[in-house]
Design a protein that fits this description.
Structural class: alpha/beta
Protein name: Phosphoesterase family-domain-containing protein
Organism: Apodospora peruviana
Strand content: 15-25%
Bound molecules: 2-acetamido-2-deoxy-beta-D-glucopyranose
CATH topology: Alkaline Phosphatase, subunit A
Radius of gyration: 19 Å
CATH class: Alpha Beta
Pfam families: Phosphoesterase (PF04185)
GO biological process, one term: phospholipid catabolic process
Low-confidence stretches: 1-10
Strand order of the largest sheet: 7-4-8-1-9-11-2-12
Number of strands: 13
Shape: globular
Order of helices and strands: HHEHHEEHHEEEHHEHEHEEEEEH
InterPro entries: Alkaline_phosphatase_core_sf (IPR017850), Phosphoesterase (IPR007312)
Number of domains: 1
Number of helices: 11
CATH architecture: 3-Layer(aba) Sandwich
Distance between the termini: 56 Å
CATH superfamily: Alkaline Phosphatase, subunit A
Length: 309
């Protein structure tokens, strides 16, 4: 009996942990901001082709429109342009979930979704090899927040859970040490300044800067203004850093072919400004890190996906 109620209590505790940080009431946000765990572990596991991997996702543009934009065309000259890169589905959320698990895991909508604790993601593979990781989401109110957050002054959608690749995984949200690595841009700037950025990063700008609620021009301007100084910053673009800037999906009328450019110090000078027409998609993100660090696989679409190198 005692054992049964203990079990019941620990199950309840698990379920609560997975939703503990969803309230958007200002008092709850202030309390969690003051107490939520934030972690910035680092590591230096040497990979085959790169030692740091940074993924940056923008929102909802076809390849043809994006490559015609002067800021995105400029960034393409600074790296390798992947001219046959595809989103995996519509709408947004399963593209992000797929970037972390190499499968949509049955998610077909932007609705609040939860995947069973047994569902693995790339984080399980990275941790098994001691490779540090972190997710940086602009305007998330504090590390580990699990809900959606509006701009407190204007009421506009700002940070959204559907654009966070890991929040749907209970294997992340049930673990406070993992939640503590899902951070905002305040923490990105702090980790950058302290030279505490991890080896694997996933970065989502807010609903304005991603282009979701603004325009391609706004997202492209943000991208160039944000990424170009980072490429000149030794705390970011350390030896053999690989950055991919891409879009979660194209417009629903297109083929889901999206802009994707590889940047950073991992790109040999001779390859800058070149194109590569191998077929890739978001499952290639997981495959590429698996190949680079000999991580094994998740047994999902990572098996058949092409790696970037
Ligand atoms: C970002 O997260 C940190 C850590 O939880 C928190 O202290 C800070 O207030 C947050 N920044 C913003 C702008 O919400
Ligand atoms: C997104 O961030 C920018 C600053 O980078 C800010 O100007 C803008 O208001 C933010 N968007 C929302 C919806 O709060
Ligand atoms: C940078 O990477 C190259 C191999 O790509 C290696 O030879 C060199 O030692 C590295 N330098 C540092 C400072 O890690
Ligand atoms: C893209 O092209 C294929 C086929 O030639 C190569 O095998 C890859 O190494 C190459 N990848 C990059 C990033 O250029
Ligand atoms: C070829 C190569 O550099 N392989 C390395 C990839 O990453 C693992 C860590 O998981 C190293 O042990 C390998 O040496």
């Amino acid at each position: 009996m005692a054992r049964l109620s203990l079990l019941f209590l620990s199950l309840l505790g698990g379920a609560a942990a997975q939703l503990q940080y969803t309230s958007t009431a200002s008092s709850a946000v202030a309390a969690a901001r003051a107490t939520a765990l934030t972690l910035s572990p680092t590591s230096n596991v040497v990979g085959k082709t790169f030692d740091r991997f940074v993924q940056i996702f923008l929102e909802n543009q076809d390849y043809s429109a994006a490559i015609a934009n002067s800021n995105l065309a400029y960034l393409a000259t600074q790296g390798i342009s992947l001219t046959q890169y595809y989103g995996v589905t519509h709408p947004s959320q399963p593209n992000y979930v797929g970037a972390a698990g190499a499968t949509r895991n049955g998610i077909t909508t932007n609705d609040f979704s939860r995947l069973a604790t047994s569902v693995k993601s790339v984080v399980d593979l990275l941790e098994a090899k001691g490779i540090s990781w972190g997710v940086y989401q602009e305007d998330m109110p504090y590390s580990g927040f699990e809900g959606n957050y509006k701009n407190q002054a204007t009421g506009a959608d700002d940070y959204v859970r559907k654009h966070n690749p890991l929040m749907s995984y209970d294997s992340v949200t049930s673990d406070v040490n993992r939640l503590a690595k899902c951070k905002n841009f305040t923490m990105f700037n702090r980790d950058l300044a302290n030279n505490k950025l991890p080896q694997w990063m996933f970065i989502t700008p807010n609903m304005t800067n991603s282009g979701h609620d603004s325009s391609l021009a706004a997202a492209a301007t943000w991208s160039n203004n944000w990424i170009t100084p980072l490429l000149a910053n030794p705390n970011f673009n350390i030896n053999r850093t690989l950055v991919i800037l891409t879009f979660d999906e194209g417009t629903t009328t297109g083929t889901n072919r999206v802009y994707a450019v590889l940047l950073g110090s991992a790109i040999p000078t001779a390859k800058k400004g070149t194109t590569n027409s191998t077929t890739y998609n978001h499952y290639s993100l997981v495959k590429t890190v698996e190949v680079n660090w000999s991580l094994g696989n998740l047994g999902t679409n990572d098996i058949s996906a092409n790696a970037f190198f």
